[in-house]
Amino acid sequence: MHADDQVDARLVAAKLSEVRSLEILPESLVTLVERVLPLTRQARLTAQVPLPAREAMAPADALFAGSPLLLRQDFPFDMDQALTLVPQLLDILAATGEDAAAVSATLRQAMATGELDVKAALTALPAGDDAIFAHWRQALPGSPRALDFIITSALAPSLAAAAEKLAPLLPENLPHEHGHCPLCGSLPYISLLREKEGQRFGVCSFCGFEYRIQRIACAYCDEHAQDKLKLFRVAEYPGVRVDVCETCNMYIKTLDFRELDKDTLPALDDMASVALDILAQQQGYKRPTLSAWGF
Ligand SMILES: [Zn+2]
Ligand SMILES: [Zn+2]
C-alpha cells in the first residue's frame, strides 16, 4: 500500500465513523458505501480512458464563453471496466442485508434474461437518458435507487480518471463565473472553500472534477445579487454551511474545514451532513443533484 493510500484509508475510516455516529442514515447504506469505496478507488487507478482528439473538444473561445470541454455523452469512460464492476457491485449490495440481496438477485436475473441491458444503462446515464432508471425505480419500490447506485458507481472511477486527464487541457486563465463543470457541463453537488483567501470550488456531480466557482454567487443560476443569496449554519455541523438562492430556490452545501484543520472527502462529507439537506428541504429549497452515489 502506498503512503498516500494509507492516509486516504485513515481519512475514509474517520469520515465513515462520523457518518455512523450521527445515526441518520441506515447502517446498511453506510456499510454499502464502506465496501464499495475500496473497489472504486482501486478501479480509478487501472481505468483505461483514451481521450478524444483535441479537435473533437470545445475550442478555447467556446471555453471562455462558458462551454464545457466535452458534452456528457462524449465524455470518455472505460466501458470494459464498468461492465466488470457491475457484477462486483451487485455482490457487495447482496451482502448488505436480506432486502438488498433480493434487489441484487432481481437485477441479476433481469440482466440474464435481457430485460436489463447493462451496456445500454452505462451509456444512458452519461447521455442523460432516464428511461431505464425510471423503469427500475418503479420496479424496485423498496430500493428505488439501486440501479442508479450500481451504474453511477461503475462509471465513477473511469469518469474521474478521465477528468484528471482532461483537466490540464483547460486554459489556465479560464474565468469561473458559472457554476457548472468546465469539463462536462454538469452541476456541482457540493462546494468547498479552500486556501486562506477562501477560494470556492464546485465538485462535479458527474465527473467528480473540482473547479473554481464564484465565491458569492448561486452555483446553479449564477445569481450574484447579495439580497437574493442567504446562508445558514447549524451548531452541530461546524464547517458546513448551506447556501440558498431566492431566485432559483436551490441550495448547495459548502464545506469550510479550513478552521477545523480537517480534510474534505466531498462524497462522504455530503453523507455526513445529510441533516442539513433535510433542514434546507423543510424550508422549501431544492437540491438539483443526487449524491455522488446516485441516491
Ligand atoms: Zn464534470
Ligand atoms: Zn440560484
Count of all domains: 2
Q: What is the overall pLDDT average?
A: 95
Determine the number of helices (DSSP H or I, runs of at least 4 residues): 10
> What's the β-strand tally?
6
Taken as a percent bin, the fraction of beta residues is 5-15%
Structural class, judged by helices and strands?
A: alpha+beta
Rg over CA atoms? 19 Å
Tell the overall outline. Answer: globular
Level of helix content?
40-55%
Biggest pleated-sheet summary: 6 strands, mixed
Ligands in the model, by name, code or SMILES, are:
zinc ion
Distance between the termini: 30 Å
Strand order of the largest sheet: 3-2-1-6-5-4
**Contiguous runs where pLDDT drops below 50 for at least 5 residues:** none
Order of helices and strands: HHHHHHHHEEEEEEHH
Topology:
Elements lengths: L2 H20 L4 H20 L13 H5 L14 H16 L3 H16 L4 H10 L3 H9 L6 H21 L21 E7 L4 E6 L5 E4 L15 E5 L6 E6 L5 E5 L10 H7 L1 H9 L13
Parallel strand pairs: 1-6
Antiparallel strand pairs: 1-2, 2-3, 4-5, 5-6
Summarize the structure in words.
The protein is α+β, with helices and mostly antiparallel strands. It has 2 domains: 167 residues, no CATH class; 95 residues, no CATH class. The protein is built from 10 helices and 6 strands, in the order H-H-H-H-H-H-H-H-E-E-E-E-E-E-H-H. A hairpin with a 5-residue loop joins strand 5 and strand 6. Helix 4 runs antiparallel to helix 5 and helix 4 runs antiparallel to helix 8.
Short synopsis of the structure:
By secondary structure, the chain is α+β, with helices and mostly antiparallel strands.
